[in-house]
Fold:
Amino acid sequence: MGKRLPKIGLLYMDYVLRFFDRSNFRGWPDKIESVVYHWKGDEERFIREVKRKKIDVLIGNIPATAYETFRRIARELPHVRFIPSLDSQFANKSKENVTRFCWKYNIPVPKTYIFYDREEGMEFLRKTSYPKIIKRSYGPSNYGGYYVHKVDSFQEAEELLTSRRYCPIYVQDFVPMEADIRVMLIGHKPVCAFWRRPPEGHWLTNTSQGGSMDYMDVPKGVLDLAVKVSKAANAEYWACDIAVGKDGEYRILECATAFAAFPYIRDWIGQYLMWLLSEGRFPKPNIPIYNWEELGKIDSSLLRTMRYITFGRYTPSYDGAIFLHRQKVDEEGAVHKIWELDEQYPMEAVKERDFEEWPSEEWDFSHRCRGFWAQPAPQGTEGGEEHTFEEPSEEEELPYTEEELWQFLAGVLGEKRAKKITKQIDLFNIAYNLEHQPEALLEIKGIKEKRLQKLLEGWETFKRNREKKGEIETSV
Ligand SMILES: Nc1ncnc2c1ncn2[C@@H]1O[C@H](COP(=O)(O)OP(=O)(O)O)[C@@H](O)[C@H]1O
Ligand SMILES: [Mg+2]
Structure:
């Protein structure tokens, strides 16, 4: 008889899109538990449930707003291995944390200034050169460049900050860039990478702003930087966005264990974790480097539905492994066979650490934001951010009409409230968020947790009814 396998639990949160489900761990012979965190006030119960279910390994991403709570929870569960660890998830919490993490490990980033003292920050902005980038560092959902602002003068910076009231004041030098590259890694091995290019004449490279993506010829130096960052984070799985500057330099823009990934990539992570946790009873998945150039030729609507993708291993005599015979030229002009490169980027076993690298006592500065913007916000601007909620174009299009979405929203909330909400965010974006990241809707004025719950329930009913209707329509 082999050794007992550890008991796996999947970590879920109300309102948060689930990164993994059981199907990502196909073949795991034991029951996989799941534990749902219900937010504020649920810590004790959550801890008891993990203990009662005798979970050894708790797998899942923790959203920014629950991060500090989970650092406490992890301390109460010293025998539970969190995957990724709370330290690996440090960068998920805020842009500030990404920066601090990169500073510590000497990882190149745009020059960044962080202020928890308002006067000091303003003084800096008065004297510095422009353009600069100002970002909201922390919040329930940071994506799509919506909280990233280019400012061209002190006056613009001051106007922005007094209306948005971000804390800390997080400023970066503006880095002119060609494009950025998203690299995803499993066990420090790059498994997917693609370029994101800004639309003509724009500086934001997020595909959410209408940019394009492609999978070809990601420079080797970018992969090397991504591996270095993944190792520094000791992350079982990881993604980073790397800016390719017009000056030819590579810099980290963002990195995290939480990212949008096609289901087949989540399957690979599941297989990797099964290998890792079973001490070799399950095979290590074989995911050749540059596979993304091949898979990227497949239409993305198909890729989105493909599952359990596997590859043959390279053998010199087997010419079926065509793409592994291809060659790549690196930045220095050296030529590498892909199968050789594949050996240069091994998938490694990430080991659990027995210390805390980023304890909250030292690294959580949120208390310094109390009273940061002591004077009241100017009339009409308080919480009055417009919400456009632009979304990644790599996600599916929504098949709904505006009319039926309005019927749904007005039906659940009443016309008056529905109108108030559509002034802040359009109907398609509401639908998108309900599908993909409902918690983002908590930023809308007039949507709190209870109402979001109602919307989610209504949404399920709406979709069910629509399906039924569709069946009738196609059957006639
Ligand atoms: N310092 C910078 N200089 C130039 N462009 C930047 C800078 N920081 C971010 N950007 C652009 O803004 C986009 C969004 O910034 P990012 O930090 O990734 O925030 P978000 O969480 O909104 O994705 C990036 O993809 C990049 O195109
Ligand atoms: Mg980004």
Summary: Residues 239 and 424 are 31 Å apart (CA to CA). The pocket of adenosine-5'-diphosphate (ligand 1) is lined by residues 110, 133, 135, 142-145, 147-148, 172, 174-175, 177, 180, 203-206, 241, 253-254 (CB under 6 Å).
